[in-house]
Design brief:
Length: 431
């Protein structure tokens, strides 16, 4: 893959790149509608592919928060056209890597040494390049290491990048800014945390240590003395990336074992630690030959506030959902219903939210659950699309839901999707 020798760093440079992309997207629309006017055989998918390619190219050059938002959007296949979801999914593992001089400059700035001076060996060609940083192989004292290097300027451009990418996201998701304001604030908070590798080091050591007793899970050892605010060093973990494993014809018992390990990992974090690895895409897991799973990248972690935990999981309790008064109390705690809502608002939203949660919590109501049941996922996606089209929801004038649930919901949806891709039949223990 072609290396990138510089990254636009200033707000002006980055804004200019977005403006140029806007012109390209506009030209694609002009071309599309001109061809249609001339009765040429074109369809909306051609336009989507052209726009998705131009937008992804710009985000790949900018890296950082802009590219991370594209990665997040790629997980929303029920909201995005396929062309965008397919293109943006490349941000998970396939962004253009930095050139050698930029790598050395970063090491000199944050470690006061070049990578060759710090490690016994260091491969200048990146093994993986994603949205916030890229990973290199290195060795020291005979130990094979993975060294994650953050792209220059990423941390300083989070706020301005989100302002630039927001119009694209709103257009793609067909949403209004007022409906997503608090959620963009939550995204900004999480992205700032992801750029702090010292915080990631602390969370990586803590969560992996507390989850080390779980069956069929492996974690890297981390090295504080070889890490800094923008460089993170850990053991190199071998294995097949889960995304590649999903393309194989591996036997179902092995897939079930992997699915069980993933379920246990997230269930234990949610219900015992009250904190969770909040980026469950295939690029963050490696599959071992025996079906055990290695967990990568604790950059995106969501701490679950105590005042949120109880009402969040209460609404999945059939006894609570059967009692409208009790359910309303939990919905108010979750900002899904507001104390000043009219009775008409409550009569509309409470049944809708009850039905939605009833579907999503179905795995929790059984001792085992077959995530290979595509009918279950079709029902969930169809209901989500139905809700998205309702004018009462789109024009409610209030964001429905606490900003804290954004990453918790994202974690569950991502986990469910992985388990569905595995066709895993698992025991849904909660710890």
């Amino acid at each position: 893959m072609k290396e990138q020798h510089n990254i636009p760093a200033s707000k002006v440079e980055r804004a200019t790149r977005f403006v140029k992309t806007g012109f390209k997207v506009g030209a694609n629309y002009v071309k599309h509608y001109t061809q249609k006017a001339l009765n040429q055989d074109v369809d909306k998918e051609d336009l989507d592919r052209a726009n998705a390619g131009d937008i992804y190219e710009a985000l790949s050059e900018l890296k950082g928060s802009a590219l991370k938002v594209a990665q997040m959007l790629s997980m929303e296949r029920n909201l995005l056209p396929d062309a965008y979801a397919d293109m943006f999914s490349l941000a998970q593992h396939n962004a253009p890597p930095l050139s050698g001089p930029l790598i050395v400059k970063t090491f000199k700035q944050y470690m006061n040494l070049s990578p060759q001076e710090l490690f016994d060996t260091f491969e200048m060609q990146a093994s993986h390049a994603a949205s916030i940083g890229q990973v290199h192989k290195a060795t020291k004292n005979g130990q094979l290491l993975a060294v994650k290097i953050q792209y220059p300027g990423v941390a300083d451009s989070v706020k301005s990048d989100l302002m630039l990418v927001k119009p694209f996201a709103l257009r793609l998701l067909n949403m209004k800014e007022k409906d997503v304001k608090i959620f963009f604030e939550e995204v900004e908070t999480k992205l700032l945390e992801e750029t702090d590798y010292e915080l990631e080091l602390q969370r990586s050591v803590s969560i992996s240590s507390q989850c080390s007793h779980l069956e069929n899970l492996h974690f890297a050892q981390y090295y504080p003395q070889l890490s800094s605010k923008r460089i993170l060093t850990m053991d190199w973990l071998n294995g097949i990336p889960l995304g590649e494993f999903l393309k194989t014809d591996a036997p179902q018992p092995l897939r079930n074992k992997i699915g069980q390990a993933l379920w246990d990992f997230y269930s234990y974090q949610m219900h015992v630690l009250k904190i969770t690895h909040a980026d469950p895409h295939p690029g963050n897991f490696l599959v071992q030959p025996d079906g055990s799973v290695s967990v990568l990248d604790f950059g995106c972690v969501k701490e679950i506030p105590e005042q949120l935990y109880q009402p969040y999981f209460d609404v999945a309790n059939p006894q609570i959902t059967a009692d409208t008064a009790e359910l309303e109390k939990r919905f108010i705690a979750l900002n899904m219903i507001y104390p000043d809502d009219t009775q008409a608002d409550k009569d509309f939203f409470i049944p809708i939210f009850r039905d939605m949660i009833g579907m999503l919590s179905a795995p929790l109501h059984h001792s085992t659950f077959d995530f290979g049941n595509d009918a279950f996922f079709k029902q969930v996606y169809d209901y989500g699309e139905q809700l998205a089209r309702m004018p009462e929801i789109r024009n409610s004038g209030k964001p429905r839901g606490s900003q804290h649930v954004l990453y918790i919901n994202r974690t569950f949806f991502g986990l469910y999707k992985l388990l569905n891709n595995l066709k895993a039949n698992i025991t849904t223990r909660l710890f």
